Amino acid sequence: MMLINFKNVNISHLDGESVLKGVNFHVDEGEFIYLIGRVGAGKSSLLKTIYMEMDIDSADEAIVLDKDLTTLRRRDIPELRRQMGIIFQDFKLLGDRTVEKNLRFVLKATGWKDKEEIDSRIDEVLRQVGMEERKGRMPHELSGGEQQRIAIARALLNSPKLIVADEPTGSLDPETADDIIKLLREIAQKGTAVVQTTHNRQLLDKYPGIVYHCADQQVTDVTNDYNQLVIDEDFSD
Description:
Structural class: alpha/beta
Shape: globular
Largest sheet: 6 strands, mixed
Helix content: 25-40%
Distance between the termini: 30 Å
Oligomer: single chain
Number of strands: 10
Radius of gyration: 18 Å
Strand order of the largest sheet: 6-7-8-3-9-10
């Protein structure tokens, strides 16, 4: 099932500076996709167009979860975002409430009303990410890896077909980063597509997926040969 289909998409900053030109990018159900490239190459910008934090300048086609981004009205963007999970490098957990209340807040904000169903869903996603014992903790009481697992649980709450993750391991130590990528790959294997930016080439080797390289305002599928590419640059974003 097709989740994203970009054909000849052009993306610019608000000041008109071009970021990416002629992007062709396709995501199907259950795919595990990496975006790599140097700082400022457009990886995060491409992700932001998927959940409409950045606008698309022009496109032959720009479809995300059956929505045409070129004609999508502002008032319909929240509905689009509710159909996907978004994970950030800095977690973005609410620091004034427990893990459980963080998740409860999201469910209520997206229309859940039945308390038993809410409680059951919270327990289910926490089990999925191995954090059921941390339900009553405050975010500051958790390690970085634990906070990212809670962020993944939050992204899973509404059973999305698509997860978008911007440097999900960027602030984590190598062992924790490995655990997070392994978890995301398991999620993809169950049918939820994962699109993520990363600078960690070791993880790409260990957990293979589809790889797109952003450089010179272009996005290129390098899945078959990225290990042979000589890319002398810093992939961090």
